[in-house]
Amino acid sequence: MLFSDVSDDELVSASQTAEKSHYETEQQFSDISDDELISASQNAEMCYLDAKQQQEQQVFSAEMKEGNGSKRFAIPVTDEEMELRSKASLPKNTLRRNMWALNTWNKWAVARNNTRLHGYQGNDIAINKWNKKKKPLTNLSDEELQYWISKFILEVRKENGTEYPPRTLLSLVMGLQSYIRTESKRGIDLLNSDQFVGLRQVLDSEMKRLSHTGLGCNTKKAQAISLEDESKLWSSKALGDYNPKVLVRTLHYLNGKNFGLRGGQEHRRLRYKSPQITLHEPEGEIAYLKYSEDVSKTCQGGLKHRKLVPKQVTHFANADCPERCHVRIYKKYMELSPKDNRDDSFYLQPLQKWRENVWFSRQPIGVNTLSNFTRETCEKAGLKGFYTNHSLRATTATRLFRRGVDEQLIMTKTGHRSVEGVRSYKRPSEQQEQHISRILDGSDDGPTPPKIRTQTDVSDESVTQTDSSLSRLIDLTNQPVVFQNCNFQFH
Question: What residues does the QRICH1-like domain cover (predicted)?
């Protein structure tokens, strides 16, 4: 239909023109070999790719200047930043222990060298070697580490000149090991490697000697809070909801006890945005709070803990005692806290002059203030003893143990990863201790377990019965016999 108006002569002429044009094009490349054509094609492709890459680089540079280049990749990091990120994998308490151990080591090394320079005589070649080379701790060989850390174990003292307890001495050695591993990337193992047998023998001997002197036998543990003491906290108004300061301390107390939170960091890490603690009020059911762990001491989220499941704990509303209900206290705190432009920390500073609907500022409570909450609350109620924020977690485990709750269920509440760890909270109550004392004194018989009868017991009992019968017979034959009103017949 498209060529219906074109004559046959015109079609033939157009076809001849097209063939001539194609022939002329072929003639232009008739003198160029196939290899040259392929090479030219490759060069053209490379030029195209280079131009495209330059164009993309220009676009990327423009995006970086405008702040849009971080949509996929971050700005290149320096070696120093990478080193800092590597050290950040260690918990803060571990880093603090490492620096404490290193500072103690450095002070000991300086004091030891000064002691020799001021009259200490000895043929210790390693001292001269130490003074000449002045090696840092991380550059010492395994042989030198064993030699000098063994000396350190025997000579280190507190600043007041007294000896360290055995566990503290072990912590110093572990701090030095961790520091060397972190700084020099050496996988030394002072407690297990065959290269440090001598060091372990020295450490073991010194720890035993210190234990025999009584050092470190009485370790100070945070006390659990009994039900009676908790009632005192409420009755003395150390806990309650009548003002901002008491309300936030009460919520801190209930969070620590009912969720089994650790003393410092787990309270400090609680957030307002993307919160770990959430309120659930299902229709027709009991309201409850749910704590979903993200990071903790035993669940860091790194390579070692990648297979661990973070703990999740629920606590239901207390209908029997609403004034002490965790859910009610939580709701009141959230209602009286600012909603906008506030810090992401969960615990906020109470206002000195509060309003009816706002009791708290937008600023978080300081770390030091938060760490003293439990101690100050117990002191206000007049409780005597050693109470810290860790007392709340100890209370969680101890109460559940005394009520016979299974160990595995307790571990889901406290977040312990080992049964041995949670068993450390199996502490007898004062009433139990008094009952045991009365049993030992003989003033209280107490529960007597049924005696297990053995074959020996049965045999002894039979012999006793036989002996008793013989004794009665012998007694009869040795006594005079009197017969009255009897008839005798003799045959």
Answer: 98-208
